[in-house]
Amino acid sequence: MNTPGSLTYVYAVTHRTGPLGDALASLHGIGRAPLRFLPLTADTTGPAPSTTPLASLAFVASDVPERDFNETALKNHFEDLHWLEHVARTHHDVVQAIAARAPVLPLRMATVYQDDHRARQALAAQQAVFTERLDQLRAHTEFGVKIYLTPDATQPPPVTPAPAPLASPGKAYLQARRAQRHSRDAVYQQAEQAAETIEAIASRHATQRVRHAPQRGELTGPQENVLNDAYLIPDDQAGQFQAAIADAARSFPDLRIEVTGPWAPYSFAMPASGQADAPEPSP
Q1: Contact yes or no for 244/231 (Cβ under 8 A)
Q2: What is the pLDDT of residue 120?
Q3: For the chain, what is the domain count?
Q4: Could you give the 3-state DSSP secondary structure of residue 117?
Q5: From CA 95, how far away is CA 14, in angstroms rounded?
Q6: 238-249 and 169-205 are packed helices; what angle lies between their axes, rounded to 10 degrees?
Q7: What is the CATH number of the domain that holds 150?
Q8: Under 8 Å between Cβ of 273 and 132
Q9: Which contiguous run of DSSP H or E holds residue 275?
Q10: What pairs with residue 216 in β-bridges?
Q11: pLDDT in tens, 142-173
């Protein structure tokens, strides 16, 4: 039941179990609010159900102040980077804590409902899809693979005109510009080869892939990100996947190939075909 003046914030979908409930009791949500299971029915007095996956399906939720998470407040807060960082970090920490103990479907940050009843309605509406997806993600973990062009590789060499006896200044300039283009093209060709190598490695280990847009701006600094993929890897193959990527990276000296993770399956929470979307907050 919600406290007065609060809304229901949901972090993820999982299966309700006793051990996970014990773990949640030692964790906190946004604003250090206690975390709780929000199952399909309001009866949470008995032991965690284990007879069927549908019976144990639950949101992980906490209360948040209505004054900070109503529609108007959220629009204002989304322009406050300090507030966003705090909420995003707490949301992520809760999801990762669940993922370390059970299959989990992360929900979007700031998925908020008017009350527990509205949240249960959303859970019930997609219970079959959620249950199927959790089964597919069991014993799998997300890893990211990024390819960056190093600053030295993308920085063109200085244009130095050849000595006058060898070429005119105009011709020398054009020759130098052509050499710059060839150098840069060679780096991009190397990146294409690296991407093909990574895809071949992933085909031996990954069960799914999501291709994200390359990162830009402050997220990459002076380096150019040209590949930003996420892979769903069975837990018993995670070490082999990471080792194979690290070994392949040594063949591409002008690139930085980075493996991130393990992560909760943010990129795979819903089927790529769009069979169902994450639940939308109720007004």
Answers
A1: no
A2: 96
A3: 2
A4: helix
A5: 10
A6: 160
A7: 3.30.70.260
A8: no
A9: none
A10: none
A11: 999 999 997 765 455 555 555 555 555 555 55
Specify whether the CB–CB gap between 12 and 20 falls below 8 A. Answer: no
Peptide bond into 262 cis (omega under 30): yes
Whether 281 maps to a domain, the answer reads no
Mean pLDDT of 28-51: 76
Residues 10 and 132 in one domain: yes
Q: Are residue 149 and residue 129 in the same domain, yes or no? A: no
> 133 with 90, same domain?
yes
Contact call for residues 276 and 222 (beta carbons, < 8 A): no
Q: Identify whether residues 127 and 147 lie together within a single domain.
A: no
DSSP 62-100: EEEEHHHHSHHHHHHHTT-HHHHHHHHHHHHHHHHHHHT
What distance in Å separates the CA atoms of residue 249 and residue 228, rounded to the nearest whole number?
15
Any residues with CB less than 8 A from the CB of 207 and at least 6 apart, and which?
140, 232, 233, 234
* Chosen domain end from 110, 137, 164: 137
Query: Residue 189's domain spans which residues?
Result: 140-266
Is the pLDDT score of 78 beyond 50? yes
Per-residue pLDDT at 275 exceeds 60: no
Q: Residue 234: pLDDT above 80?
A: yes
